[in-house]
Specification:
Elements: H1 2-16, H2 18-39, E1 47-55, H3 79-89, E2 99-105, H4 109-117, E3 123-127, H5 131-145, E4 156-162, H6 167-188, E5 197-203, H7 211-240, H8 243-249, H9 254-282, H10 289-315, H11 320-337, E6 348-350, E7 354-355, H12 361-373, H13 383-407
Parallel strand pairs: 1-2, 1-3, 4-5
Antiparallel strand pairs: 3-4, 6-7
Length: about 400
């Protein structure tokens, strides 16, 4: 088992140099502790409410546009559409400073509640079939009776979906209540206590994620990218120190040598992943065991990709310092192009089929890790990015193996 000796030697080599120990093992602790401290408690600044809606309002065949306030500038027989349009565009219905709304239309309740669970949207509302007729009946009732108290048959019930344990949800519900009341009073041209529109809330259970949580998948992949520095440095050091020449004189085959080096990288990556998991959990990010397992698989496959790229760098550099410099320079752009820090825009090589980022292995690692840890995706759900990642793992490690072996005359 000569390849195991290579593995042990490579791991010992990592621990002998303080800068590599700091890079490999302290980086996840410092990295996640820093961002966890800053962002772990969430964002207290301006808030954007993503509001999902389903408008079931049937409208009315009657012409009632004469009594709609002119400032709304709206010609339609559907007061549900008018409410949503006013909510999206009329800031007078939103009293909160720094608050913006993003309305997203849905066609069915199941899809809407699923996205609430995944926190794609914060709140879901359903405008009832009788929304317009209710307001018209209320208007006529007020004109004839001058009373602010309505019979039950002319009230309208708007359904609200979300997680009551979320503070943002509670604020969003208060905003919707206020906007519905203001809208009702505006349409009916009267000041009513509670208006004629009521609401009924339906609980959707979810885990509220902090801003820090959305950084976790990308930062995990960036830690893999940072391994370029130590991996390439170790390989060049073997050439510098003459270890590679001594290895050539032994009976070890090239496949055993590079298999042992890869195994050492996987072991170090495993330790790094566990350290990251511990720090991430301390700062409030929680995922199921299956999510972490799939995330670990993604982490290891990404490590194989980076191992191959590290061999290519080591093949064309002559000193450890040169290898570390080249790897360090590459790491930051690699991280940005992978979407580790910010989502990358769509840039198509083939329209709706192939993006320019698809040629970067860690881009697929970031996509897969985000789907698993944030959207709770299963292995089946991430087959596409995982397949790309596996193909690139064979490709990059194969190319690195061939180039480094040829360059080392092994």
């Amino acid at each position: 088992m000569l390849f195991l000796k290579v593995t042990i030697k490579a791991i010992k080599q990592t621990f002998r140099r303080k800068e590599r120990v700091l890079m490999v093992f302290m980086s996840p602790i410092v990295f996640f502790a820093f961002f966890g401290f800053i962002f772990g408690s969430g964002n207290n600044g301006d808030i954007t409410y993503q509001i999902a809606y389903i408008n079931n309002d049937l409208g009315s065949s009657l012409d009632y546009t004469d009594f709609i306030p002119a400032e709304l500038n709206y010609n339609s027989n559907n007061l549900g559409d008018l409410y949503l349009d006013t909510l999206a565009n009329n800031t007078s219905l939103i009293s909160n400073s720094g608050t913006t709304l993003e309305l997203i239309q849905y066609s069915n309740v199941e899809e809407m509640t699923k996205d609430i669970e995944k926190q794609v949207v914060l709140i879901g509302i359903i405008i009832p079939y009788s929304f317009t007729e209710s307001l018209l009946a209320s208007y006529n009732y007020i004109q004839n009776n001058s009373l602010a108290e309505f019979p039950v048959n002319v009230t309208s019930v708007v359904k609200i979906f979300g997680d009551p344990s979320s503070s943002n949800y509670q604020s969003g519900v208060a905003l919707i209540h206020s906007s519905l009341n203001d809208y009702s009073n505006l349409i009916l041209q009267t000041e009513l206590e509670g208006g004629n529109i009521t609401t009924n809330q339906f609980e959707v259970n979810l885990e509220e994620l902090s801003q820090f949580a959305y950084f976790v998948p990308g930062f995990l992949i960036f830690l893999v990218i940072l391994q370029l520095v130590s991996m390439s440095g170790i390989l060049v050091y073997e050439k510098e120190s003459g270890s590679m020449e001594r290895i050539k004189l032994s009976l070890i085959k090239s496949e055993e040598l590079f298999g042992g080096l890869l195994l050492s990288n996987i072991i170090i990556a495993t330790i790094q992943f566990i350290l990251s998991l511990v720090v991430i959990t301390i700062f409030g990010f929680h995922a199921s065991g299956s999510q972490w397992f799939i995330g670990y698989v993604i982490y290891l496959i990404a490590t194989i990709n980076i191992s191959g790229i590290a061999m290519i760098i080591a093949s064309f550099t002559n000193t450890t310092q040169d290898a570390s410099s080249v790897s360090g320079i590459m790491s930051a752009p690699f991280g940005f192009l992978s979407g580790a820090f910010l989502p990358v825009p769509a840039v198509w090589l083939i329209k709706n089929s192939l993006q320019i980022w698809d040629i970067i292995p860690t881009y697929h690692a970031t996509q897969a890790m985000t789907s698993v840890l944030i959207d709770n995706a299963s292995m089946v759900d991430i087959l596409k990015p995982l397949s790309f990642l596996l193909i690139f793992a064979f490709l990059w490690y194969g190319i690195g193996f061939i180039i480094f072996r040829k360059n080392s005359n092994y």
